[in-house]
Amino acid sequence: MTVPPGPQPAGAQPARTLRGKYGVIDYDAVAVNRTFHDHECHYYDQRFAIVHDAQTARQAVAEVEGLLGRRLVAGERVLDVGCGTGYLAAGIRRARPDVDVVGSDLSSGMLDRARAAGAWPLVQGDATGLPVRAGSVDLVVARGVLHHLPDVRAALAEWRRVLRPGGAVVLLSEPTPQVEQHGAVVVRLLFAVLRSGELPAEEHGWEMASMASNLHVFTAAELADLARAAGFAQVELSTSDFLDTLLITASYVTWGRAPAVARLVPWRTADALARLLDRVVVHRLLPERFRHTVVGVLR
Fold this sequence. Notes:
The two termini are 21 Å apart. Helix 4 links the parallel strand 3 and strand 4. It is built from twelve helices and nine strands. The protein has one domain: Rossmann fold (3-Layer(aba) Sandwich), CATH 3.40.50.150. The chain is of the alpha/beta class. The protein is globular, with a radius of gyration of 19 Å.
């Protein structure tokens, strides 16, 4: 795919504030996200139970195709916005080498990791000003990206700009308010069990940066309204996930606070089991309003 420079976001990014141990901090949300993800890239896959292999590749393709309602087509041009370490960009390329996949991310560190995982080509850019020509992409995929962006509507409008007529955006893993509430219970329990003391100042700073990089939670209806405001005519969003997100929260905290304990846990196997239980049990019994992520397709 050719990727000539596209328009850059106009104006300064809105300032944010964060209240923490060291008082109220004003910060540039984009700069914090770039800096934090350049740091997080070194442990992201470990804490999120990601292994870049054929199994993960099949899983990534299944997630996209399941929401899209069809198989990916040979020669189709796919843009993975906020590709991170390459879960989708590298995974789709590994499972479907006949599909043209480009990964884009704000963080150079994440792009380095994605490249090592097998994703290529890769471009660095802001999700609200992609270095991609208008109308040149068949499919945009984005996994857990919008909640990091200061201007969600502008990002969605930009993703619509790069789509060809008839193209679609597949959204995965955008957090709902419930995941914060339920995840907080898991975190408190783990802190008690692991008997975690106060973190050193530097590590505490990265914890603050992690909080500052997560700007939003969404209900499906709220995200649908933003998508329509960005110009999408067909919006199909729902909620998903419950046990899997709690398991990943536990993994993230345990690796951060007690890595010796984390090494004893078969996180990947546990993640697969949690996904299975979500699919065959939880999604049938738990009302959508209690689930943890927003997923769906925009056209």
